[in-house]
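The data layer described in this paper is built around a simple, fixed record for each protein. We quote a single record here, exactly as it is kept in our systems:
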Amino acid sequence: MAGFSAMTNDEMHGALVKWLSGLLGVKVIKDHQGGKQPSFPYVMVNFTGSSEVRRHAQKVVYEDADTGDMDTGDVFPAVTATPVIEMEWRYSVHAYGGSPTDTLRPLVSAMKLAQVLEPLMPDAIVHEISQIRSVPDWINERWQPRAQMDVFVRGLIRDGHVIDVIEEVSFDVTRT
């Protein structure tokens, strides 16, 4: 795991938005960013939540903690324990204007090609997508074409915590 950079929820969201921008060929934005609405067509990515894939961490990495100038007064240096946890992030992806179902369709074939998914790797992989749903909406007294699909991304998180160190004592057993 050396060299792995754990992503925050916001960093994962940004990485997915960037990857989708290159894949879909239209402007892709994060949800709830404020500002002026982009011109049509565009795609919005809404982070809906995350959860552990498995109940237990894959492993726990122990390292000497960087306590800076803090003197803990302990005989043993502080230790950081970092559980490696596989997570799944869920996103609702919305396409607006133009032919929105066609805008989202490249995701279906992209899922079949590891080379297309490589820009997200090794930190994340698009694990699953839902069907594309046509969801037109009545806006300003006319129908606007819209589409929506769910995207599930998996990756690892590594959030370390300073823990108490238990003194280790070696001993010998002799038989007389």
Remarks:
- The first helix runs from residue 9 to 24.
- The chain has four helices and ten strands.
